Amino acid sequence: MIGSGIVWRMAWSNLRKQWKQTLLTIAAGAIGAMLIAVSFVNYDSVRISGERWIETRLGPISSKLTPEEQLSAGFTSEQVALLEKYVDERSTDYRVLPYVGAEATLRAHDSKGEESGVLKSVLVLGFSTEKAARFDSARAELWSRGIGENEVILNEATASQLGVAAGDALEIIASDGSKLLRVREITPEQGLTGFRDYGAYGGTAIVSEALAREIAKIGEGIYPAIWTGTVNDSLPDRAMFILPELNYEIHYLKADYRDKLERLNFTIIIGIISLVAIASSLIFMRQVLVMISESRRGMYGVLRAIGLSPGQIGAMFAAEALLLSLLSALVGSLIGIGAGYGLVSLFYGTYSDVLQRMTGMHIPIHPHLSIVGAVLLFISIFVFLAVVSAFAAHKAGRFPVVEALRGGGERLARKGYKHRLFGWVLTGAGVYFTVIHFYLAFVETPDLSGGNLLWVCVSWLGACCFLLFLLIRLLSIMSGPLSRLFGRLGIPPLSVMLATKYPRSQSGRTYTTALLFALIMMIVTFTVTIMGLITASGDVSQTPQTVLGNGGYASYQSESERDHIMSVADGDDFISEHVEAHMISEPFMIEMTPDWVAQAILPVTEELLKRELPPLAERDPRFGSDEEAWEAVLNDPGYIMLPYFYKTRDDVFKPGLKAGDTAAFPVYEYKKLRAMDEPKVLLFEKSLTVAGFLQKEAYLHVIDYYGETFMHADVVDELKAFGFKWENQRALGFVLFDFDYRDVELAQQLEDRFALNGVLGFTVPYLNNSAEYLMNKQLGIGFVGCAVFSGIISLMGLAVVQYRTVRERGRQIAMMRCIGVPGKQIYWMFMLEGIVISAAGLLTGWGIGASGALLFTQAARRDMPDYMAFEPSYLYEIILPIMLGLLLLSVLVNIAPARAALKLKAAEGLRSNDE
């Protein structure tokens, strides 16, 4: 019957006649569709932009090989030949290209020979162009032309930053000199010409292999690294051949880049918001469709009486429901795609230039969505809504014919044995989920990996549904207390009594509307709390942005490099004018615990005490201030200042230590590789008194300072014989600079001045972390905005339910008007119904959202203790205004239905049927 043209004409006519209800239904369904579309555009944008970025940075490069021996200068020519022979003869899926890389500064010169542009931290690459033509076959023509000794090839991005064109002069500046080159060619940034490794390089330059060796100070025949690439697309990113005759470390560049891409994709957060909005939208759509079918009950009763079957009635309603689903999917998809493009540009684009300058691993994200993707998106949304329509249509034709013909009045639910049994099962499940959720939130923090995450989310949602059910049942039996409460506000008791009566008789409808508010408030609270935690942990205004109280540092690998840095700092007028002081720091690692990792050993000096000292979590009670405790370590070799983990973990030092305790501190032998059951060898032991414990590190800028442990300078000299460096600690030491690091312009100028003088490793943590923090903050605001925006579903649900309530209760209102009930009391009856329903949902969502946020926060702290070290405050200033704003809007939404009830004339109400 659904294929009949008259059925579709009747459906379209019904939608046009009740156009206000139609618009509300379409808008509610469209909101869920919009959020699905936003999430899909975000996913597609990150995926497509990421693939293009990987092609730009890597192209034919899949991995990088380096010698297994850390101190090795590189692969010898014999080792390279052995590797190339193996690949050529036995592994047709791979290609290899040995190369030399170095860091330098590029300075452009105009036609008059004057400086026109500077770009620091450029990765200079040199390799055999003949081998490059085979390795990068797509650009074989470029490499077959070779590179002269005085030539350089730049990519378009690097050339644009320098403002140079082909044929221009370019000076390349290294740590021990400079050389003038000619820009031979400017090429697209792709593969070899766009490679920047893992470092924060500002650009890429290709020079002859001989010049690259000269800059990197690497002898002939030695290659620090070898690129590998696959010609078989079916191979996974982490696939690699093994050469038994040669040991090497494999750096899976393409796989690591894809991992970063996955971490950047915020689809998970947007997806959680979207799922709640989708669930809310589907719940609302179902409720509205059920209400529409009930308003057609009189007409459908007549059709049943003349012989139509329940299935035929359902088909008639299905046509109307499918039209609503189609329009909702179409409107939601179109608006959602547009909103997705705007949000991707806003979220990822605002700080892209800053991030690009700060870090070479920044992925520029641009909005993308394929036509096929858009079509599939629309079909998926329509199918979701059509399923809901099918369930509503199935119910539409199943009703008692006599009752439908009578019309009016409220149908009393006939609760049989099966219905009661089903209710008890749901109640038991609700109790179970609630107990599980609160146990996980407040007693035992779960592991959120794998299937555990799904279980946590299910119990969380189940607890929300059950607690809302309990609250609504509680409200339904509290008409007396509520009457006294609202009576003090001047609201008539009769209005309170009637306002609690109807929700009891229509408990399903009341619960559905309140659940919309609860779900929205739950996800808003959760999103605000989680994003607050993420932004707080990287807040440059609240987390330390210095190294030993210094705003910047430059690492060095040799004494000569250290002397060069010092001479630049003293000799450059701009640097010496703005840098207040500088100091030398050469930390080393010591293993002082039998079951824990090593910690950095540092001396307390007069220079250190002039800086901003690290705050203490606890100090020896014999000292009146933190300054006194630091002074004690400076002057007395018997004192030590310990890192935070000594205070919180008894298994680090047994028995647990307190500030003021004196204990014997051991020093163990360091071994790079140690069997799981192999005990550490004790080398040395010294008795020291704990002057204090440092606060927990919220952000570690340099791995060399992990677990900072401060001692008297003489004790540090005594321990140097046992010190070592981890494999990823390449610096001999650091020159630390004290200046106003919060002055971003000054920090950038200092970076440029150091780079121009050949100091390429000058770093300002505050500068590097500011852009990422701002982007995270902006993302958080966007996510919260999406969650709040989905709250419109709840408001629409309340509006439709209240409008339908006015129509359904027309006879009741008429009867009350006839017996003299004032209009004010009828007005407040409808107002209170809406306020109580929305308030119940908002309070439940707030409470259960906070417990869910606590659960996820505790899990994050356990898995990432250093990153989540900062204790954020609960963001009442954001959550409360959102909740009060939604409550105020719900009050405003109730005004129109309440006024509509007053406009309904008694005679009209007595004649009315459910419409």
UniProtKB/TrEMBL annotation:
The keyword Zinc does not apply. It is found in: Cell membrane. It comes from the Bacteria. GO terms for cellular component: plasma membrane protein complex. The chain crosses the membrane at residues 22-43, 264-285, 330-351, 371-393, 421-441, 453-475, 511-534, 779-805, 826-854, 874-895. Keywords: Cell membrane, Membrane, Transmembrane, Transmembrane helix. The keyword Transmembrane applies. It is a multi-pass membrane protein. Residues 272-392, 787-904 form the ABC3 transporter permease C-terminal domain. InterPro entries: ABC3_permease_C (IPR003838), Lipoprotein-release_system (IPR051447). GO terms for biological process: lipoprotein localization to outer membrane. Belongs to the ABC-4 integral membrane protein family. LolC/E subfamily. PANTHER family: LIPOPROTEIN-RELEASING SYSTEM TRANSMEMBRANE PROTEIN LOLE (PTHR30489). This is ABC transporter permease.
